[in-house]
Write a structure and sequence with these properties.
Elements lengths: L1 H19 L12 H6 L5 H9 L5 E5 L4 H12 L3 E5 L2 H13 L7 E5 H9 L26 E13 L24 E4 L3 H11 L1 H15 L2 E3 L2 H10 L4 E6 L1 H7 L5 E4 L4 E10 L6 H11 L2 H8 L18 E3 L2 H6 L1 H11 L6
Helix pairs in contact: 3-11, 5-6, 7-8, 7-14
């Protein structure tokens, strides 16, 4: 009986020892990209820094213009050459996909909206990463598959020109936009079908579509392309009230003295902007070093640039207003439906 107990205890101890040594890697044996990406040993950062010294640099495709500033800081810190290419979200996804199909593997990291990187995940282009910094982020920033991670939260808000509209006249809900005083005052970003579809889901599709159709028919909604452009038009007074900008758009212009302010009309919709490591990244050590950087020092830099970091260390811009996160997988599955709904209800009625 004692022998049995000893054997059980010995087995448990061996199992625990095995778990403890699971992260010990044979230095003489090179790690595969998959092994490296999930490695969480205490020497993770040292290993990444040492490996990055032997690589050619970092290549990033991105949609955030301001990401260039952070990449430059990363490059200076680690003496790493960084090259990048920026375009719209769809163009970035298309380039990554087409290059993969052509067996061209030049990019290490892709930064894009969550639905686009979710599409890249479905195409099996991305690498699962287990970073020790995932626990520091909002839960919506880390999907179960861990093949992309949220670095910021894009929150759709309204924005108004503070010289054109008084605070006491601001709408408290979307229904208030039926008031004739908003005739010729409203604008919307013309590619916000995901926001609109998810919003209709919260409001009730029939009721929500009827409301926005009535707003467009009664007061008109000008249709603009680009959240930054729309926010600039608010600051100039050309569009006194925009319904869909990102919460950080007005904040970035306010720093420059622009008369613009954000407005949280509920339900408030949000989605992460993400980074992902490519499965066939040519510089995997550098890619993972940058990945971890974006979840640590990069979070502070994003905050200083008026973005909304996913780190729980920073307060959200509207702490008392609940956020409704759009499921990226649902956004992909419902894309055709939501696009048609937005086009028929809002865009085609634009004036």
């Amino acid at each position: 009986m004692r022998y049995v107990k000893f054997s059980v205890m010995a087995t448990l101890m061996l199992a625990l020892m095995g778990q403890a040594s699971a992260q010990v890697v044979d230095a003489s044996k090179p790690m595969s990209i998959a092994e490296l990406a999930v490695y969480q040993g205490p020497d993770r950062q040292a290993k990444l820094i040492e490996g990055a010294k032997k690589e050619s640099g970092l290549s990033v495709y991105h949609v955030y213009p301001a990401l260039t500033n952070i990449m430059n800081e990363f490059g200076k810190k680690y003496n790493i050459k960084v090259k990048s290419w920026r375009a719209g979200s769809e163009a970035v996804l298309q380039r990554v996909t087409s290059e993969n199909r052509g067996n061209k593997f030049d990019v290490d990291i892709v930064q894009n909206n969550a639905p686009e990187n979710e599409a890249a995940f479905r195409e099996k282009l991305l690498q699962e990463v287990k970073s020790p910094y995932h626990n520091d982020l909002l839960p919506q920033a880390v999907p179960a598959h861990k093949q992309w991670v949220g670095i910021t939260v894009d929150i759709w808000t309204a924005a108004y020109n503070t010289e054109k509209i008084k605070k006491e006249d601001l709408p408290k809900s979307y229904k208030d936009l039926l008031d004739p005083k908003w005739k010729g005052q409203l604008g919307i970003e013309g590619n916000n079908h995901a926001w609109f579809g998810a919003l209709m889901g919260k409001m009730g599709e029939e009721e929500g579509q009827k409301l926005f159709a009535n707003i467009a028919n009664t007061n008109g909604i000008s249709n603009r392309k680009g959240h930054s452009l729309l926010t600039m038009m608010v600051s100039s007074g050309e569009v006194p009230l925009a319904l869909t900008v990102y919460s950080w758009n007005p904040e970035q212009l306010k720093v420059k003295g622009a008369p613009v302010e954000g407005l949280a009309l509920q339900p408030l919709m949000a989605q992460p902007s993400t980074i992902a490591m490519l499965k066939k990244a040519p510089n995997p050590y550098t890619a993972l070093l940058f990945y971890d950087y974006m979840l640590t020092e990069g979070q502070k830099q994003l905050h200083d640039l008026k973005f909304v970091p996913t780190s729980k260390k920073f307060e959200l811009p509207f702490p008392k207003v609940p956020l409704n996160f759009i499921d990226p997988a649902m956004a992909l599955d419902q894309q055709a439906k939501w696009f048609k709904m937005f086009e028929d209800t809002v865009v085609k009625r634009s004036k």
